[in-house]
Amino acid sequence: MPGKGSRTAFVFPGQGAQKVGMGKAIAEAWPAAKAVFESVDEALDERLSALIWDGDIETLTLTANAQPALMVTSMATLAAMEAEGLPNWLPDLVAGHSLGEYSALCAMGALTLADTARLLRIRGQAMQDAVPPGEGAMAAILGADLGSVRRLAAAAAGDLVCQVANDNDPTQVVVSGHRPAVERAAAMAQDHGARRAVMLPVSAPFHCALMKPAAERMEAALRDVPIRVPRVPVVANVTAAPVDDPECIRRLLLDQVTAPVRWRESILRMRTEGVGRVCEFGPGATLSGMIRRIDRNLTSCAIQSVTDVAETLEVLTVHGRSGTE
User: Fold this and answer.
1) How far is CA 300 from each of CA 37, 125, 130, rounded to the nearest angstrom?
2) 319 catalytic residue (yes or no)
3) Annotated catalytic, 207?
4) Which residue is catalytic, options 39, 49, 74, 98?
5) Which residues of the chain fall below pLDDT 70?
């Protein structure tokens, strides 16, 4: 393993980071970034870019729109970096939070941009359709560790579904399931050692057993899509371990629909693999904040503006290509 902290990872955000106008300035500054948006518009046979840049937040936040929208913004940001001199520079590991795992795979050539956009449109719609509106919910449990939240979810479930959906960082674990059970978990949170609980404004209960119908639709969608060996391993949400075998990737993408996102463990695994720098591609800085809370020894940066592209490229150039340090 390389010396401590000598390696670099790229990470890609998930749903919740979307905002109107994201990626527009980068697309205006770099033709290569604009071409990414145009390619996704063509793949989906619609002007998703117009919704992203000039639409309303309610429509953009619909799961079927938000998932491909976040991916294309991340890929356009990466394209801007590549246009400025990143083509011969590879990270050592990549990862993405939930839908961001598709972005990570696309970034490393395991999936084509068009296939990624189409898969995420199907995934988003399937997740939205899996549970009737209002029947599911999610809540962030703050200030309790994973074991405590697992016990909380089990106590709140009764004969309903209430499961850990996201182990985000040491201060935040998200539960998902039937609304009455999730609301019970939120009400009981302080009794299980949590500081507080926050019900999340989501349209469906992601990453729990209620997503089984979505998994069935994704199985059909993934069956015939070519998946290649990624240029660098992807730390999978389901296992929190690096993977590069295409058939294993296909299986993990299917499992990911109903399984929890093991983000905290994924970042810790990167650390044991010698990662010291993490670059987040896309809108917001949610993952960078989580990473700082997981391990303060990790250096993280969020790349979401024209200025960020130049500044991050300078840092990476100074450090050199991590794989040859």
Assistant:
1) 26, 32, 35
2) no
3) yes
4) 98
5) 1-5, 87-88, 318-325
